Amino acid sequence: MGRFRDALAAPGLGAIAEFKRASPSAGAIRPGADVIGFAKTYEGAGASAMSVLVDRRFGGSLEDLRLARAATGLPLLAKGFFSSPEQLLELRAAGADAVLLILSDLDDAEARRLRWLAADMELDTLVEAHDAVEVQRAVELGADPLGINARDLSTFTVDRRAQLELVAGAPRDRVVVAESAVHSRAQAAAAELAGADAVLVGTALMRAADPGAKLRELISRPLVKVCGLTRQEDVDVAADAGADLLGFILADESPRRAEAVLDVPDTALSVAVWVGERRDAGADLDQLYGRENGHRSRDATLLRGDEEVARVVDLPWEQHDPTHHERARAVEGRLMLAGRLSADNVAAAIEAVEPWAVDAASLLETEPGVKDHAKVRAFVEAARR
Length: 385
Description:
Blueprint: H1 3-8, E1 14-19, E2 22-23, E3 27-28, H2 35-44, E4 49-53, H3 62-71, E5 76-79, H4 85-94, E6 98-102, H5 108-120, E7 124-129, H6 132-141, E8 146-149, H7 160-169, E9 176-179, H8 185-194, E10 198-201, H9 203-206, H10 211-219, E11 223-226, H11 232-241, E12 245-249, E13 269-275, E14 285-292, E15 295-304, E16 307-313, H12 324-329, E17 335-338, H13 346-353, E18 357-360, E19 365-367, E20 370-371, H14 373-384
Parallel strand pairs: 1-4, 1-10, 4-5, 5-6, 6-7, 7-8, 8-9, 9-10, 11-12, 11-18, 12-13, 13-14, 16-17, 17-18
Antiparallel strand pairs: 2-3, 14-15, 15-16, 19-20
Helix pairs in contact: 2-3, 7-8, 11-14
């Protein structure tokens, strides 16, 4: 395996930051964009790799690849519609570390031959699939990394939910890249929780006023959760403030009990919070506490379907614990830190624990289940700062 694949396999969620001036689905995106400036920006903002469109339909050329190679040390993925050994030779000479192979354009024999030739040239291949049949083909071809595209290239339609299920079903011994339709931290996190090692982001970066800031936003942690929501107006304010996770407590005994999971924009993820047992509430994630002595247990698990994807470390029911941060630091893997967080203490908590997500509810309220909009905005701002 080459350095492109190795860069994506590093711990945490990686990002392949893409350069393209246009696309068949979106038309002109950023005509005249300077690939050298973008390459330097992406490297400085923490990209794992850079994707360069060399196809004229995307406003690209081989010269863009050459200029990017001269400007950055990032692994470079050449993107286009490739089907011949001559193209691979050109791309390698122009500085590519990896090339895209699109299974909807190639039969198995062609894809296998191109993968072998690329390996001889010390090129990685990102084999791209769009549906379950193509994912199975890619797996049988030995694709690693494996790209799963949310966009159907024949219709340009996006099905993010179907993509996430394909990501979740991909072999865990492969590096998996979720491609297309990532515009928010929550959408990137959804791919991460489904099992993606990296996301490929193009349009969101190319359209951003500050592409480097947008890239940092997409991959930065911790995520921010506002919980105990019972009113749509509070959901809307939390989402507008930039919360990534929106929590709805569905346990009967809670004074913050919501009747249902309310409408959440597709830029955020919904979380149904349960005590003792859970049902299907249609949320993206479930947060499950045990029931102890008539109330919730101290800690919880965050679930995607039946898979635990993070641990939630909370305070004891209506109590404080001076060892709270110490307990949280001892948790391995993804950690969501909860327990009387607010704008006043979340920055110190993040510095002390370095969690994957932070979760606040009671200190953002005017009364149980009714949010103080100023406190919500201040908490999200402080956590994201």
